[in-house]
Amino acid sequence: MTKKIEAIIREDALDDVKHALHEIGIVGMNVLEIRGHGRQGGVDMSWRGTTYKLDLLPKIQLNIVLSDHNVEKTVEAITKAARTGKEGDGIIFIYPVEDVVRIRTGERGHEAITYPDDIDTRKKK
Amino acid sequence: MRKGFLRKLIIPSIAMVLMFVVNGIAQAQSNGPTTSDLATATNIMWTFITGFLVFFMQAGFALVETGFTRSKNVAHTMMMNMMVFCIGALGYWLVGFAFQFGGVNTTFPAIGKIAANSFAPGSLGDLTGHLNHWLIKFGDQGGILGGDGFLLTNGVRNVSGILAFFLFQMVFMDTAATIPTGAMAERLKFTGFVLMGFWVSMVIYPLVGGWVWGGGWLANLGRTAGFGNGAVDFAGSGVVHMIGGAVAFAGTLVIGPRIGRFNPDGSANAMPGHNIPMGVLGTIILFFGWFGFNPGSSLQFVGSGQNLASNAAVNTLLAGGAGGFAAMMYMWWFGPTKKPDPGLSVNGILAGLVAITSPCAFVNATGAVFIGLIAGVIVCLASFLLERIHVDDPVGAVPVHFFNGIWGLISVGIFSDAGASSAGWNGVDGPVTGILFGGWTQIIAQLCEVAAIAVVVGGLSYLFFLLLKGLGLLRSEPAHELTGLDMPEMGALGYSTVDMHMHGSAIPRQSPRIPR
Asked: What range defines the domain where residue B390 resides?
């Protein structure tokens, strides 16, 4: 079975998280620039002396689809790389994925998300 | 080959230059220019070059105003700042120049011990027979509306001094005309803007500007009423900035705040500008242009003008710096977020520059620094005041130009240190002297100019904008204001047409397909 990890992190944590994922052999990912807030609730700003709240903050969303057995290791890597200990570090959602199709070859499921030198092929070596 | 080519080019060139030089020396020895000719030529060149610097301030205004407004209105705001020059050039050429300076070369008769005097810029050469007619005047010293120089006809083509003077005064007028576009930005209908451009360039600026610079009744207050040297306004804190600010103030009052700026409970919402780098770059360009605006207003660089211009340049530098520093520190210490606010720091620099514009040639360096520091605080306080009374001025044009225009005029009556090169200003024998240096009457003349501008420019412009509002030409449709004025008013987005492709409105007839 496959899962999708949706990790919402700070903009400035992206490089560290990406590096950490490459280290453990996560090769494929999508990155989205998004806006939103959780418990942090936004920041106070000021324009020519008038204050206002910027409540929808820019964040980065990483989408990763991977096999069940790699989820824990991946979540651990993201958490470690993205944590500062302050509000606004982000959140990770994990969903089940029905199926995966690789357009080029027509491969399905686990086969469709296997790359040379990724987390699983590395393990076999 | 290459060497030979160069030699072929250089040797004849050197020979030709030498011929010109020898020829020039020969001519100079026979019937060349006199010292007086050279002085006039230098003064005219000084006036032109500083005028060109003032023209460049249009770029500064465009950047500050556009940076301080929202991205959905950039094409509209930029267009206003560009087209105000085109409109102003025509309006000022048609009638503005003649209304303002048509009587500047009239000789006013002697009064008591004060000699006969003309207000014409004699430094720019012999202007005899030009600009010597008043359309309206009350008595010999009470000029109201000039009446010569319409369309620059009447032989002006052969008088370089007047052409330089026209260009210099036109770019000054345009500085005043572009101020209200900032205060009414993001909701001013383009038709209303065009009419406002003609209103400023043809009517209100020439009328009141002529009272001070065209030899009108305010300039004569020293001779007629004994108020110091009459209304003294070296480069136009009053004439340019307070007039522009008063039109802007009247405009914002009539047009009303942007939708959503103030809440029903009275609190205000910030509407942050979309590009602080634009605002900062624009401010630096304006600062640069101000080195033409203030020193150039001597209209001469030979004789006493040299000292006036040099003082003006250094005082401009100091007051602009002090204004920005004061506003930054004020916001850092007392502002709501206790941070060195970029928006008000920009306004602070401009406030210091506006305030020093009038006194720049008459005060010493210490005076300039104090004038700038106070200006920086005034601009912050005025911004908070406007917000409290629900006047919406997106870029701070009123705090910068109106309030600090007033402060600049008053500061002449306080800090002027009776410098020798200001003796004889406005036809009064003594130098310009403020309260701190024992001159008690100068400030009265300054307050007269403040009152005249506030009442006449503010009042008439208020009526003018009410008329536009009545005709439905002043304010954009609410729906247009909410989506942004760029598409509905200008028919073009300021930023990127890519969005249009995405929304399907501008898809090419045959969609491009990526080759496989």
From this structure: 40-258+268-490
What is the CATH number for B69?
1.10.3430.10
Placement of tokens 């030699």 in the chain: B7
Q: What's chain A's average pLDDT?
A: 91
* Domain presence at residue B188: yes
Across the interface, do A45 and B337 touch by the CB < 8 Å criterion? Answer: yes
Measured CA to CA, the distance from residue A10 to residue A36 in angstroms comes to: 11
ipTM: 0.73
Closest CA–CA distance from residue B339 to any residue of chain A (Å): 9
Q: Is B62 part of a structural domain of the chain?
A: yes
Read off the pLDDT of residues B373-421 as tens digits, 9 standing for 90 and up.
Answer: 999 999 999 999 999 999 999 999 999 999 999 999 999 999 999 999 9
Is B35 a member of any domain? no
Which of A46, A47, A48 would you mutate first to test chain B, the one with the most B CBs within 10 A?
Answer: A48
Q: What is the tens place of the pLDDT at every residue in B107-162?
A: 888 888 888 888 999 999 999 999 999 999 998 889 999 999 999 998 899 999 99
Asked if residue B31 belongs to a domain, the reply is no
Q: How far is CA B310 from the centre of its chain?
A: 20
Cβ pairs bridging A and B (under 8 Å): 44
Record: contact A52-B272, CB cut-off 8 A: yes
How many Cβ atoms sit within 10 Å of the Cβ of residue B482?
12
Among A residues 60-79, those touching chain B with beta carbons less than 8 Å apart: none
Domains held by chain B: number: 1
Could you tell me the pLDDT band of residue B506, with boundaries at 50, 70 and 90? very low
Say if A52 is an interface residue toward chain B (CB within 8 Å).
Answer: yes
For chain B, the average pLDDT equals 92
Exposed / middle / buried, residue B265 (Cβ in 10 Å: 0-12, 13-18, 19+) = exposed
Distance (Å, whole) CA B207 – CA B201: 10
